[in-house]
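Input (structure):
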């Protein structure tokens, strides 16, 4: 009897990811520094293999009607094959018969299968280099795939490892997913990388931005307007691209171009995967690996000044040691108009690098551009140093038009309370909306971590209140720039809330009873204090010099 498979495409995709992770575990690479490369690249290989098959079958009825399209594709003449490839859209990589998973499956018995597997991956990368590569600030091309079996230390285990990976790929198809869009792939991507974006990544550890916060930032920046075209979006600390994906989805993936830069190699690989999954292949060429603060890649036509964008988002590292590059950054006072944090004698890893990213975000806005950046909540009341100068600037220049303070532990890998600053370079706002959402959210356990997440209705509350610029008791205020200055430039919503005193009417007898209770309690405390004083003095008398 044949039992129908009732699992959803999401469930099947999660099972594939788990299976790939289990294979890495079996071959000694569970939690290995290279595991993420294997998982993400093999996942991507499967995705583009199925995407290619899906698209060529739409082009060719001959392939669509064939019992096995892979065999039919291999039997085509060179001219027939090229005609099909010419009709493919640019966001689909061009594969040849030798690149297909079915071809790898048929070669598993060969002793050098690890070499065959690796060469297949690298050949796909070479033949699609023009579109599917990213690059560094030095214009070095980073290919789509690299050799993966090299990460298995025992050479005798490399071929079995490659076979095990292919085994996981053949009984699954992404075709059901190609009708899905952002929400599906955002959830899958988050699950795919959840074990790899941790503070264990070292100096430049990636911090994944929760989907809820990314959504809030995108919706508040873009609004619900569908009349947007040729929009340019930028993230100077892009990480894996969560903020950019949410932003592009809100605008419309076909109506915007993504520009990104991040110092992390790991992030660049994951960002590439994220762009491809979300149909933003045309933006791959703008995804740059390199230090944004020292060498920003995206420049204006003159090649000197920074390129400016319609929307800029960022969730930068908050504090870290950047002493090695501090002097280079300080030599650019026009970019960093509020200054650069000094190198402390102690706690060198606590240099406030986020203040530099705030300045860079503002510098990267078009005349009417909007931006949003995640910062530590402590910034909202900064009084001195670089942070204080930045805070004063964004208020004096009326660039800031909103702040949302998020619940604690909403970020997986940092206990720092965070807020989101919203900028509008048109500088037309007459008031700044300040929202304290710190009391919202529900607690949940993720492994050993106690975290907090916003409920859907709470997300809507934040968005609605912000858009309406409403004053809500103990939640939000809308204040003028002069009011902010009067509060010593504080952007903390709580400092503007009215203090409420509850008065309770008491009878004379109730009043007398309360006072008697207070007197009795105080008398008891005084007695305990006197007894303790006496005891201490007695003990002191017993202390002798030996």
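Output (sequence):
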């Amino acid at each position: 009897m044949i039992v129908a498979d009732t699992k959803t495409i999401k469930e099947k995709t999660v099972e594939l990811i788990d299976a790939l992770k289990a294979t890495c575990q079996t071959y000694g690479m569970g939690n290995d520094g290279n595991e993420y490369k294997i998982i993400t690249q093999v996942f991507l290989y499967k995705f583009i293999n199925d995407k290619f098959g899906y698209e060529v079958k739409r082009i060719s009825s001959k392939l669509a009607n064939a019992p096995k399209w892979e065999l039919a594709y291999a039997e085509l003449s060179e001219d027939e094959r090229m005609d099909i490839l010419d009709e493919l859209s640019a966001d689909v990589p061009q594969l040849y018969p030798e690149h297909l998973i079915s071809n790898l499956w048929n070669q598993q018995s060969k002793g050098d299968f690890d070499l065959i597997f690796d060469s297949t991956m690298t050949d796909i990368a070479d033949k699609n280099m023009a579109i599917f590569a990213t690059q560094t600030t030095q214009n070095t091309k980073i290919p789509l795939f690299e050799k993966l079996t090299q990460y298995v230390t025992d050479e005798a285990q490399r071929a079995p490892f490659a076979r095990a990976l292919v085994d996981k790929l053949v009984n699954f198809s992404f075709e059901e997913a190609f009708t899905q869009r952002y929400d599906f792939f955002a959830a899958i991507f988050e699950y795919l990388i959840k074990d790899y974006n941790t503070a264990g990544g070292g100096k430049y550890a990636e911090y994944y931005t929760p989907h809820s916060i990314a959504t809030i930032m995108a919706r508040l920046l873009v609004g619900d307007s569908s009349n947007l075209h040729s929009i340019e979006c930028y993230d100077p600390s892009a990480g894996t691209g969560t903020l950019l994906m949410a932003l592009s989805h809100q605008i419309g993936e076909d109506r915007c171009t993504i520009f990104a830069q991040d110092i992390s190699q790991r992030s660049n690989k994951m960002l590439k995967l994220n762009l491809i999954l979300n149909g933003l292949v045309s933006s791959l060429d703008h995804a740059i690996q390199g230090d944004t603060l020292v060498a920003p890649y995206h420049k204006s036509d003159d090649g000197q000044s920074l390129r400016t964008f319609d929307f800029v988002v960022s969730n930068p590292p908050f504090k870290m040691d950047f002493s090695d590059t501090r002097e280079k950054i300080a030599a650019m006072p026009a970019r960093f108009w509020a200054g650069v944090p000094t190198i402390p004698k102690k706690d060198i890893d606590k240099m406030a690098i986020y203040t530099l990213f705030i300045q860079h975000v503002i510098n990267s806005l078009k005349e009417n551009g909007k931006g949003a950046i995640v910062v530590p909540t402590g910034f909202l009341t900064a009084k001195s140093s670089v942070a204080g100068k930045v805070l004063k600037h964004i208020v004096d220049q009326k660039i800031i038009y909103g702040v949302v303070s998020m619940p604690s532990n909403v970020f997986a890998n940092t206990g720092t309370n965070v807020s989101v600053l919203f900028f509008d370079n048109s500088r037309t706002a007459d008031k700044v909306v300040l929202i304290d959402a710190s009391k919202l959210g529900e607690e949940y356990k993720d492994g050993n971590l106690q975290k907090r997440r916003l409920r859907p209705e709470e997300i809507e509350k934040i968005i609605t209140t912000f858009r309406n610029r409403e004053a809500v008791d103990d939640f939000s205020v809308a204040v003028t720039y002069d009011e902010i200055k009067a509060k010593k430039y504080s952007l903390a919503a709580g400092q503007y809330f009215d203090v409420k005193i509850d008065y309770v009417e008491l009878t004379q007898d109730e009043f007398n009873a309360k006072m008697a209770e207070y007197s009795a309690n105080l008398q008891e405390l005084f007695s305990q204090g006197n007894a303790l004083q006496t005891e201490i003095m007695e003990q002191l008398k017993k202390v002798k010099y030996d």
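Notes: The chain has three domains: 9-180, 190-496, 503-546. The CA atoms of residues 375 and 419 lie 5 Å apart.
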